[in-house]
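Appendix C: a fully annotated inverse folding record. The material below is reproduced so that readers can follow the format used throughout the book. The structure is listed first as tokens, followed by the designed sequence.
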């Protein structure tokens, strides 16, 4: 079996965390931020301390399907996320911070999409991840395979900021 160096899989520095952990990652040289928060949730004050070159804000609840009072992620959210990630360069200077409320569900799912697109050459994702049909089929496959139940997520005390690379 071939040994794989994680630096071959992660072409840039990546950190995933929850809101409560944002301030602790400021000294990490973050260059890009992907924020995924509930609609109407106030902008976390800790984000103002980051000197970032680029930022994407997505707003949807941690649910699979929209219901009264709950907004699910849509295809355009995935397309925006993938377009943002295509702008990341694979240099040692790029550091992407992805956060949601707890750093457990939405942020890790977003990180999986970012990494699959970044390393499509390693069989980690569709080679045409930017196309609408690939986006739709990936989102539908994830939606149909995810267990149904109450709103997902965990208390922020259960999350840990975990940098990769």
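Designed amino acids, in order:
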């Amino acid at each position: 079996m071939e040994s794989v160096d994680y630096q071959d899989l992660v072409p840039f520095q990546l950190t995933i965390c929850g809101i409560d952990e944002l301030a602790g990652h400021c000294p990490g040289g973050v260059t890009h931020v992907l924020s995924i928060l509930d609609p109407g949730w106030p902008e976390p004050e800790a984000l103002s301390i980051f000197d970032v070159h680029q930022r994407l804000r997505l707003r949807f609840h941690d649910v699979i399907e929209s219901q009264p009072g709950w907004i699910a992620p849509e295809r355009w959210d995935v397309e925006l996320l993938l377009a943002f990630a295509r702008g990341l360069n694979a240099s040692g200077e790029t550091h992407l911070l992805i956060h949601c409320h707890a750093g457990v569900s939405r942020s890790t799912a977003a990180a999986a999409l970012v990494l699959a697109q970044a390393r499509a050459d390693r069989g980690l994702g569709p080679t045409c991840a930017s196309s609408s049909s690939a986006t739709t089929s990936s989102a539908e496959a994830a939606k149909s395979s995810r267990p149904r139940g109450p709103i997902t997520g965990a208390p922020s005390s259960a999350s840990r900021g975990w940098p990769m690379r």
